[in-house]
Design goal:
Elements: H1 2-31, H2 37-69, H3 92-99, H4 106-116, H5 122-129, H6 133-150, H7 161-181, E1 185-186, H8 192-208, H9 213-226, H10 252-265, H11 273-286, H12 295-308, H13 312-326, H14 328-335, H15 348-361, H16 364-377, E2 379-380, H17 381-393
Parallel strand pairs: 1-2
Helix pairs in contact: 2-8, 4-6, 4-7, 5-6, 7-8, 7-9, 8-9, 9-10, 9-11, 10-11, 11-12, 12-13, 13-14, 13-15, 14-15, 15-16, 16-17
């Protein structure tokens, strides 16, 4: 027995080692050998172990939640003539829909789902919604009590309720993906366990509703964004901004799939916010280099998005596109409107964008101060390192 376990562990260790060496052989020829190769390998191994552990914990948490929410009858073995459930059935999407109960407000539905299914902490959810952690904790607690009193069954609702709940499910999946793609805090830039789970569940939603343009749009947005992951970090895990990424390292297969989803769904039916964001990601994906990006088209798409789903973060992203089309001074004038916004007040990304625009405008001293202020505000270690490095590179004028 012990020898079998030892053999299995040894085999798993060899498999992990081969994966790490494959990663090294893929990255080192293009990015250069890091200063400390052994430390690089240890770091890569550690990150992948953390991602795997997080994925396992999140899956166990979902299984426990499903068991707790299931009515008593669902725990009884079916009769011989009943349809048996598939042994490998994944009830996560059903659980997502269940958490989006109509007795709850849409923001509360999303918050509960992120906590119960997405595996995000209350603090992470609070940051996503720009509210204090204590406020979010109260919302989640009240939401759990409301669903318990409603006596919901663990099953997909009928139309039109399913369509209404699915809108909230998409918002939740979008937030899970965003937290995974750029972690709001901690020592790592991204959490692959969250992005992979968000994409998997969005694919399940797309299979459930193949003719829903917004479901397809969200899936395309995630796939196109995730395709850039290999180029987002350097050999030491440091953040590489979009304009400086080696686009030959982007996942060409993922980009092809994402572009096909956009082409198949954008021309049909009413256009929604996720489809527009997917179209923006597609414009970036189709550009062979940063200098070839069709910024006027991206600005037009952000103008449309500002009408469909106006919010401060859309305004902030539009400011960047505006700078590329009309210059940094025009963008800085628009950026001042966010200084008094309650949601983004004190958010490091406002300072980071301001620093970038000031740098573009040639105001080195102000840009350096803004980069340093953004670095003080962020709770992400990789982002902090990147912002401080940018501050150090700016030439004072």
């Amino acid at each position: 027995m012990h020898s079998c376990v030892g053999t299995e562990r040894s085999t798993n260790a060899r498999t992990r080692s081969r994966r790490h060496w494959r990663a090294a052989s893929a990255q080192w020829p293009t990015q250069g050998i890091p200063d400390n190769p052994r430390a690089w390998l240890v770091t890569v191994a550690g990150r992948r172990l953390v991602d795997q552990a997080r994925s396992d914990i999140a899956r166990r948490h979902r299984e426990e939640t499903v068991a707790a929410m299931a009515p008593g009858d669902d725990l009884v073995a079916p009769a011989p003539d009943d349809d048996l459930r598939a042994a490998d059935r994944d009830d996560t999407l059903t659980l997502l829909v269940l958490c989006c109960h109509p007795s709850l407000s849409p923001p509360t539905q999303a918050a509960l789902t992120l906590r119960a299914v997405g595996g995000l902490t209350t603090a992470e959810i609070a940051r996503a919604y720009f509210v204090p952690e204590a406020t979010m904790a109260q919302r989640i607690s009240r939401a759990k009590q409301s669903i318990k009193r409603a006596g919901s069954r663990f099953e997909m609702p009928a139309e039109p309720e399913l369509t209404d709940r699915l809108r909230v499910v998409l918002q939740v999946l979008y937030l899970i993906f965003n937290e995974g793609y750029t972690a709001s805090s901690g020592p790592v830039l991204a959490r692959a366990d969250l992005t992979h789970e968000a994409i998997r569940l969005t694919r399940a939603a797309h299979e459930l509703r193949p003719d829903d343009g917004e479901v397809a749009g969200l899936l395309a947005l995630m796939v196109l964004t995730e395709a850039r992951r290999p180029a987002r970090t350097g050999p030491d895990g440091d953040l590489v901004p979009l304009a400086e990424q080696d686009r030959t390292r982007w996942d060409a297969d993922a980009i092809r799939i994402g572009l096909e989803l956009v082409a198949a769904n954008l021309p049909h039916g009413p256009v929604g916010p996720y489809q527009v964001q997917a179209a923006i990601a597609a414009v970036h994906a189709e550009a062979p280099g940063a200098a070839n990006t069709d910024w006027p088209q991206i600005l037009s798409l952000y103008d449309l998005l500002s009408v469909l789903a106006p919010n401060p973060m859309v305004t902030l992203n539009r400011v960047v596109a505006l700078a590329m089309v009309r210059g940094p001074r025009a963008a800085l004038e628009v950026l001042t409107s966010l200084d008094t916004d309650e949601q983004l007040a004190g958010h490091h990304r406002v300072d980071a964008v301001r620093a970038h625009l000031l740098d573009m405008a040639g105001d080195g001293s102000a840009a350096r101060a803004a980069y340093q202020q953004a670095a003080r505000k962020t709770t992400s270690v990789p982002e902090q390192r990147y912002l401080l490095a940018r501050a150090a590179r700016v030439r004072a004028v």
